Amino acid sequence: MEAQNKKDLSFKIEPSDPADAERRTVLKGLTLGTFGLASLFTIGNLLEVLTFPNGEKVALAKAVIMADKSLCAGCRICEMACTNFNSPGRNSPALARLTITKDYLKGDYEPKLCYQCADPPCLRACPVTALQVEIKQGTYARIIDERVCIGCQRCVQACANHFRPARLKFDPHRYRTIKCHLCWGDPQCVKFCPLGVLRLVKSEQGLIIGYPAMKDD
Amino acid sequence: MIKMKNPGGWVGKILRVDLTSGKITSQSTFDYVPKFLGGRGLGAKICWDEVPPEVKAFDPQNKIILATGPLQGTLAPTSGRFMVLGKAPQTGPIESFTRSGIGGHFAPELKWAGFDAVVIEGKAPRPVYLWINDQKGEILDATRLWGLNTYQTQEMLWKIHGSKTRILVIGKAGENRSRIACILTDTGDASGQGGFGGVMGAKNLKAIAVQGSGYVPVARPQDLAKTTQHIYRLFTRRPAHSDPYQPEEKGFKYNIWGGGYGRGSLSLLPGELLDLCRDPSSGYSQTPDSCFACPVACRSRVKGPDIIPGVAFCAQSYMYLESMVHEPEKGYSKVTWQAAKLADLLGINAYEIMAIVPWLADCYREKLITEEETGLPLKEIGSWKFIFKLLHMIAHREGFGDLLAEGGQRAAAKLGGKAEKLAQMYYPRSGNFGGYREHWVYLGGFPTGYAVPALALMWALDNRDALVSHSYIAMLWGAAFTVGQDALTADPAKIFPLLKAAMKEAYGSAEAAEFFRPDGKSLNWDWAARVVKRYHEHSILKDCYILCDILFPYLFNANTPDHVGDVSLESRLYAAVTGLEMDVAESYNIGSMLCTLERALAARDGRTRQDDLLHDLYFEKEDAGGRKYNRADLEKAKTEYYQLMGWDLPKGIPTKATLQRWQLPEVAEGLQKYGRL
Fold first, then answer.
1. Does residue A12 register a pLDDT over 60?
2. Which residues of A touch B310 (CB under 8 A)?
3. Of the CATH numbers 3.30.70.20, 3.40.50.1110, 1.10.10.10, 2.60.40.640, which one belongs to the domain with range A2-202?
4. pTM for the full predicted model
5. Who has the most CB within 10 Å: B4, B109, B519, B673?
6. Structure ipTM
7. What pLDDT sits at residue B356?
8. Chain-chain contact of A192 with B214 (C-beta, under 8 angstroms)
């Protein structure tokens, strides 16, 4: 199993092969069937969820939000649009699923976004499988099932080990961890960004990005 | 008071700080809202209750009020602004209540920290700064910050409280109680007019640092998102091909002043520095920069290896134009930029410098002042040597700078005689409540150099300077830019036809734009009073919600054939955020009420109809079209305005009946007590 993992790490530079993504899914299916450790269930009719409590491979995300920081004017609309949509009724950057880091004197602005990592440390850290892969809308984003989340924040810590600031945040009012879920395929930050800094990059083959392709940011 | 069901917008608490005793308390915002809305209305009410006329601006009893409105800290476009209010040292010769807006990123942070407003009174025994973090305030020692410039102070505080902290800070000018000291945040957003930096200095308060992790409640998030998207579509389009200055859509005009203004348009003027910024290999750059939640990003961020980095506003662009005359081959040079930035570092209101420098030049030309007397290199106005010396002398109150630190109008009055007469050109309002600089030529008339009756009336009535980029005047700008003219070349006759429908919508008459008679010989005052009443209502409402001066009210659309704007945007945002219905007509009543309250504040300080007047000069000179303001016309328009507002005609003070109508019994009582009714 470890050899398998290592092999996958070497993928990071090569463009992903469609057949490969297919193999992953098959692999998961196998895991599911063979070990019977994973569970497959449906939440309402919104999302279907696959879980892998044994830490097995996760399907690559098919979309991710990217930023061209050279264009950013630092208005923080993305943060506000995010929290207005995802935490309705509560406008606050502390609840935004992305963070703008700003150096006001030098004028260096940078949106820090969730990479929907190829091998997500947050997902692996979750003790209760609240972190899932969204497949119903086909984004394969790493999402949090807030009914399962116990607010232990291990995922936040796991992310912070690789990326700063941590892309996951803790919502103290509801005692849940929150995370970018690409707004089910229609990210509000991208929609509202007035300067076109943010864009949604899609790939049917899945994107090898974030951890482990990028070690830190 | 009626208990409301979870209104959004306001976070519910006002922080009260007494620097004398060090006591910090909090009060419910709902003691004042929704009646006074927030921002300017909230501040006016607190000033009415707590700052009587006997209190002088630099007294410990004077209060400095930082007031946000219901929209701050939400997705609502341009909701980064807030108001600084209190008794202003700059108003003169009698100090009186005024307000000063400031953009940037401070206001939302204050809301997230849990406070709608901060009211500061008293005087600390030693230099302190105020640290506000998540529902609590703390007074901390600032002995080691005292004397530092505005950038250094912020850098020090970022080291202590983290870089997410937003800071209001004063420079050397504020510490020395200059009447023209500003309060600065980040690299250039400043509350200048009013001289509240000096008030902070008098209180020994070096800075206010705030950081919050809370949230602002929003009643109808979906409505808010929808209205916000709608407003974005009106004002801006994404940049094309990664060029932030060009909209993606061909023919679309960034919708401010008819497309004459938009993304990154507060830019450097042509010259040495702009050329450097456009050369990618130079290491200098200029990029659009935004206030909080603003889709337009009108400001430009300028940086380079040997200049002070910062944001360019109109003050940075126009403060030291003398340098462009001094070295015409360089145009807008590094000297021009550094001069404006030096004013920021020292915490001096750049708008005042725009009056003081040309006034000094006039005085020197007329041989009223000499280099020996003043200690300034007056032969070299326009050079770095001159501005460096001038700003330092003002900030440190050295020699002649001590006089100039009192502001141009007070300095001129002290010199008296011809020097005072020369200053009247720059400080148009006569009477006891002047002290504010005129914006361009002829009261900032548009097109530049033209007399506009409504503007003269606005100037006469305001407790500060009138806004020249707002409401009625902004519509004139808009129409001119739409037909391809600009501030200097515009021909008024060509823009009138364009404005008919938009004027009808905004002021109730298609003819309101026509500020001179068809024969072109005399000014048309018919609509001045009605236009100014609506302008005051618009202006006070946007300062209460609080939204940006330049985007709101949205009266002129450059991208449609009839150019009709939409006056309901502000109230729609208000309703979406708070969940309280706000009818446009009803909102104008609130505007009138608050305008009456502000007038009562000035009246209590002694302002009467005689103070609503301009200097003789303005009635004597002809404008670019050969027309003149006429004293009798202005008086007639004033009478009409007072009538519309329900104020006493001979005195210009709100009547008892009007105050009752607006349910301000305490105001009627107070005016009676001071014998003003």
1. no
2. 105
3. 3.30.70.20
4. 0.91
5. B109
6. 0.93
7. 95
8. no
